[in-house]
Write a structure and sequence with these properties.
Belongs to the aspartate/ornithine carbamoyltransferase superfamily. ATCase family. GO terms for molecular function: amino acid binding; aspartate carbamoyltransferase activity. InterPro entries: Asp/Orn_carbamoyltranf_P-bd, Asp/Orn_carbamoylTrfase, Asp/Orn_carbamoylTrfase_sf, Asp_carbamoyltransf, Asp_carbamoyltransf_Asp/Orn-bd. By secondary structure, the protein is α/β, with parallel strands linked by helices. It folds into two domains: 8-134 and 297-311, Aspartate/ornithine carbamoyltransferase (Rossmann fold, 3-Layer(aba) Sandwich), CATH 3.40.50.1370; 136-294, Aspartate/ornithine carbamoyltransferase (Rossmann fold, 3-Layer(aba) Sandwich). It is 38% helix and 14% strand. The chain contains eleven helices and nine strands. The chain has helices spanning 13-30, 55-66, 87-96, 111-117, 136-151, 175-186, 215-219, 244-251, 255-260, 281-284, 291-311; strands at residues 44-49, 70-75, 101-106, 125-130, 164-168, 190-194, 210-212, 225-228, 266-268. The strands form two sheets. It has a five-stranded parallel beta sheet. A four-stranded parallel beta sheet has the order 2-1-3-4, sandwiched between helices. Helix 4 links the parallel strand 3 (101-106) and strand 4 (125-130). Helix 1 (13-30) packs across helix 5 and helix 1 (13-30) packs across helix 11 (291-311). The longest helix has 21 residues, at 291-311. The two termini are 14 Å apart.
């Protein structure tokens, strides 16, 4: 039973694989003419977004509606938050309205954990991204996408044992990278992170990763997947690299680097993509690119997480 989903570090291997297996069940339901399931009928879920979002917010909303839940979309812009209402008062207001679950995105690292631990509201909490901390459903959908591509129809009950994944770019500010590193490790993959020294966080020696500054050297070695990250300039308060051209030349998946990749190397990007900067259009649109698979699979994975957290079970009935 998973009472909340705040961090991928909280998931055991068995729990992570169970969520991926439920995601596969949800994907099968998505192929039907009637895609709706009654699993969360009568439940009210609020999507509490203090940061702008397209993919994550819409993906959660689609997932909730396919599970027959009632959905409230809350945006900090245009709400009482803009008038100075505190985080606590917003949550208490939602509690009194009788919501059954909260999906939260917040610019402050730790906000979902705070919500899950305090007595302001006693409902399941799902982290949709908090500051530079974590984005667990993105990591789960990435793992699901890799597993489905690697194992195909025989993926069920399997992890990612032996998979070699390279994560490239702004590791320092990336909650996606943090969630992926821990989940991929839990599932048996080996991870190498590549970035300029200024975009690597402190304490990496305590993370289950190898570290490199040289993307060409890493890509010259065998790997199974390359995950490119967006440079999060909105979180930067200093110059972390001289200019976009230098960054792309050193750490972008340029056309030249893409052509040197083996055609069976999977390419991922959590989006939104800055084409021509961190990834070339040729790489983003290649047949080995799983970017659109990630978007589609996000709905199924979030359906699985919502089902598991709100019903208290890790097995589809």
């Amino acid at each position: 039973m998973i009472p909340h989903l705040i961090s991928t570090r909280d998931l055991s291997r068995e729990q992570a694989i169970a969520l991926l297996d439920i995601s596969a069940d949800m994907a099968e339901s998505g192929a039907r003419e009637n895609k709706k399931l009654p699993a969360l009928r009568g439940k009210t879920i609020v999507n509490l977004f203090y940061e702008d979002s397209t993919r994550t917010r819409i993906s959660f909303e689609v997932a909730e509606k396919r599970l027959s839940a009632d959905v409230i979309n809350f945006s900090a812009k245009g709400s009482s938050v803009a008038k100075g209402e505190s985080f606590k008062d917003t949550i208490v207001t939602l509690r009194e309205m009788g919501v059954d679950g909260v999906v939260i995105r917040h610019p402050s690292s730790g906000a979902p954990h705070l919500l899950a631990e305090r007595d302001w509201i006693d409902v399941p909490v799902i982290n949709a991204g908090d500051g530079t901390h974590e984005h667990p459903t993105q990591a789960l959908l990435d793992a699901y996408t890799l597993r489905a591509k690697r194992w195909g129809d025989s993926a069920r009950s399997k992890g990612l044992d032996g998979l070699r994944v390279v994560i490239v770019g702004d590791i320092l500010h990336s909650r996606v990278a943090r969630s992926n590193i821990w989940l991929l490790h839990t599932l048996g993959a080996t991870v190498t992170v590549v970035a300029p020294p200024t975009l690597l966080p402190p304490g990496l020696s305590e993370w289950p990763v190898s570290v490199s500054y040289d993307l060409d050297a890493v890509l010259a070695q065998p790997c199974d997947a390359v995950m490119m990250l967006r440079v999060q300039s909105e979180r930067m308060r200093a110059a972390y690299f001289p200019n976009a051209h230098e960054y792309s030349a050193g750490w972008g998946l340029t056309l030249e680097r893409f052509h040197r990749l083996s055609p069976d190397v999977m390419i991922l990007h959590p989006g939104p993509m800055n084409r021509g900067f961190e990834i070339s259009s040729a790489a983003a649109d290649a047949t080995q690119s799983l970017v659109l698979d990630q978007v589609a699979n996000g709905v199924f994975v979030r359906m699985a997480v919502l089902y598991s957290v709100l019903t208290g079970t890790e097995v589809m009935s």
